[in-house]
Specification:
Layout: E1 4-10, H1 19-24, H2 33-47, E2 56-64, H3 66-77, H4 93-97, E3 102-110, H5 127-132, H6 153-157, E4 163-169, E5 177-184, E6 188-189, E7 199-209, E8 215-216, E9 218-219, H7 220-230, E10 242-248, H8 254-269, E11 283-287, E12 292-294, H9 302-318, E13 335-341, E14 368-373, E15 379-384, E16 394-400, H10 404-412, H11 428-439, H12 441-449, E17 457-458, H13 465-475, E18 487-488, E19 506-513, E20 516-525, E21 533-540, E22 557-562, E23 568-570, E24 573-574, E25 580-588, E26 591-600
Parallel strand pairs: 2-11, 14-16, 18-26
Antiparallel strand pairs: 1-7, 2-3, 3-10, 4-5, 4-10, 5-7, 5-9, 6-7, 7-8, 11-12, 13-16, 14-15, 17-26, 19-20, 20-25, 21-24, 21-26, 22-23, 22-25
Helix pairs in contact: 2-8, 10-11
Length: about 600
């Protein structure tokens, strides 16, 4: 049996990051420490899920009394007398010395790999090593989460003693059981022991000593005994593989935890409760002193039920065309938008206490928000969006593209707390990907809600054609078949976009030709067609039609087409005998909203 020892990390010969510096790397996230730690733990659990399994996350709040309290005290007091840590920087020992019950927050995942791999940080960058020892390592799959790994500091910051105790059952027939504790304190100069006078980083570990100069986890039967002694959930081999994290003296009261923790989980993890192929991606459970219960969207949370419906819409748009669903929205080439009206949602009252989080606070002024989501369907943040028109309450999601390049761009745009997309952190194509997605949020939402944009372009009065083009580009809504720029099939009827051989019209620029303002558009013909394609225009002025235009205003008309081979044709009808990009020009005059449609037309020659 191994003797539990404390290893207080000395500063290496080449220096290095101090423990307090690790905590500071999180910056100043806008969210409270409990929200931050629950988000981080959920991300870790999702990244570590077993293939083909739906992981489970259990959050418990309880107090250690009697033997459980004594077991934790004995473990964490081991080696304190020889650590050389000055009393003025020790947040842990005085708390343990009081002998009172110890409130704890526990976050436990199941159906995951556990902290696997070698525990030796010199030999391998394993899951165990990344969790306990490495600083600044990315998540195990950088495309599904942030790219920093600094978020693990949130586990320590969520407790007043900056200490965690971890129990992990590694998946696999011979997967080891491992227990180790760690604390992030302040750096110091040792005042006793062999290291007297030497600088220490402030990181402390409790486990099994190898040679007096390194630390390893307690393993096997002894690890299981420690876990049982402090009351961790049972883990019977591979059937319950995963990791439990105990945070003593959490930064939240027991009363506030009972109210806030379920709301925090709903606010950040509701996408994991939305079924995929009839199966929920993750199970969420809480035990807040009144027994264990599962969280569910069904009939339980109207706000997030609405978001769930919008997510289902975005998921269909993420499906490849070969599976029967149409292409991505033009203005969001790296993301998929889903949005629905939510006119009858009632939001209950919050705690009314500024010291504790109220996840629903940002919605209390009215619902007009999108949830920005990673490709892994974890919420990054919520963003209020002005869609430029009066509308009933609505909610939406922006789901990052799952292709490696796009997913990597969004992951890189996240700060260490993973709570925003910031294109200013990026360069080149990655910055453009994120910036354009955020820029055209309102357009994507309007497309989903079926709201036609009505851009006013003053052809004669505009002070600058470039300014007019910018305004036209930002306001014109191509949509995806539900708004301006509708692409119809022959004979009417709304055939699925996957069966439509013509893409949505894309605005590409303005120019002046013969004193008239001309707007140019592009469509893609996806295969050789037997029929021609026809572009038509319409106008909306105060709800009017083209026929009601004042005589001084020139109605819009299609001038002609340019084909992929460079040849041209006049008027709105054009043969589509070859696949490729076709461009057409629309002439107009005056200040009014122009919308265009492209449909399959009659037979033409040439």
């Amino acid at each position: 049996m191994s003797v539990v020892v404390r290893y207080s990390e000395p500063v290496s010969p080449s220096g290095g990051l101090q423990a307090k510096g690790l905590a500071n790397l999180l910056g100043a996230p806008t969210m409270d420490p409990i929200t931050l730690v629950l988000r981080e733990a959920a991300q870790n659990a999702w990244d570590a899920r077993l293939e083909g399994e739906a992981p489970s996350l259990l959050v418990r709040v309880r107090s250690l009394r009697g033997p459980q309290r004594d077991a934790l005290r004995a473990l964490l007091l081991a080696g304190s007398e020889s650590s050389g840590e000055p009393p003025e920087v020790d947040q842990l020992t005085p708390r343990l010395g009081k002998g009172e019950e110890i409130p704890v927050l526990e976050i436990c995942d199941f159906g995951t790999h556990g902290l696997s791999g070698s525990p030796d940080p010199v030999k391998e960058s394993s899951r165990f090593v990344r969790f306990f020892f490495d600083i600044g390592s990315p998540h195990f799959d950088g495309s599904t989460g942030g790219t920093y790994g600094f978020g693990r500091a949130s586990l320590y910051l969520a407790g007043l003693a900056r200490t965690i105790l971890v129990d992990s059952q590694v998946a696999g027939a011979n997967g080891p059981r491992r227990v180790m504790a760690c604390r992030l304190g302040d750096s110091y100069v040792a005042t006793s022991g062999e290291g007297r006078g030497n600088r220490h980083t402030g990181r402390h570990f409790w486990g099994a000593s190898v040679d007096g100069r390194s630390i390893r986890p307690i393993e096997g039967r002894q690890a299981a005994d420690i876990s049982e002694a402090v009351g961790f959930p049972r883990r019977d081999g591979i059937a319950h593989s995963g990791t439990s994290i105990l945070i003593p003296w959490p930064e939240i009261s027991m009363d506030a935890a009972a109210h806030c923790i379920p709301q925090i989980l709903y606010h950040n993890l509701w996408p994991k409760l939305v079924p995929v192929d009839g199966r929920t991606p993750m199970e969420l459970r809480v035990d807040l002193g009144d027994g264990e219960r599962s969280l569910s969207l069904a009939g339980g949370h109207p706000v997030y039920e609405c978001f769930a419906t919008a997510l289902a819409m975005a998921r269909t748009r993420r499906t490849p065309p070969a599976a029967g669903v149409g292409p991505k929205t033009r203005r969001n080439p790296a993301a998929h938008v889903g949005a629905i009206l939510a006119p009858h949602v009632m939001i209950g009252e919050g705690l009314g206490d500024p010291d504790w989080p109220d996840p629903l606070a940002e919605f209390r002024g009215g619902l007009a928000h999108v949830a920005l989501m990673r490709a892994s369907e974890l919420v990054v943040t919520y963003k209020q969006v002005d869609i430029g028109t009066e509308c009933a309450p609505w909610v939406g999601v922006v789901l990052a593209e799952s292709s490696p390049a796009d997913a990597s761009a969004f992951a890189a745009a996240e700060p260490p707390a993973h709570d925003d997309w910031n294109p200013a952190k990026l360069k080149g194509a990655e910055a453009t990907t994120v910036r354009m997605t955020l820029k055209y949020l309102s357009e994507g939402v309007r497309a989903c809600l079926g709201i036609r944009a009505q851009p006013l372009v003053a052809a004669a009065d505009a002070p600058s054609l470039a300014d007019a083009a910018d305004y036209f580009s930002e306001q014109f809504l191509a949509g995806d078949g539900s708004a301006a720029g509708h692409v119809g099939g022959a004979g009417g009827g709304a055939s699925g976009l996957s069966r439509n051989p013509i893409s949505t019209p894309e605005f590409i620029g303005l120019e002046v030709v013969g004193g008239k303002t001309v707007a140019r558009y592009r469509v893609e013909v996806r295969r050789q067609l037997e029929q021609a394609i026809q572009a038509t225009t319409s106008v909306a002025i105060e709800g009017g039609t083209t026929a009601e235009l004042p005589p001084e205003m020139t109605p819009p008309r299609v001038i002609g087409w340019t084909k992929p081979d460079g040849t041209s044709s006049q008027g709105g009808l054009c043969s589509a005998s070859m696949p490729g990009n076709y461009e057409f020009a629309v002439s107009f005059g005056g200040s009014y909203a122009v919308t265009v449609d492209v449909e399959l037309g009659g037979d033409v020659n040439g």
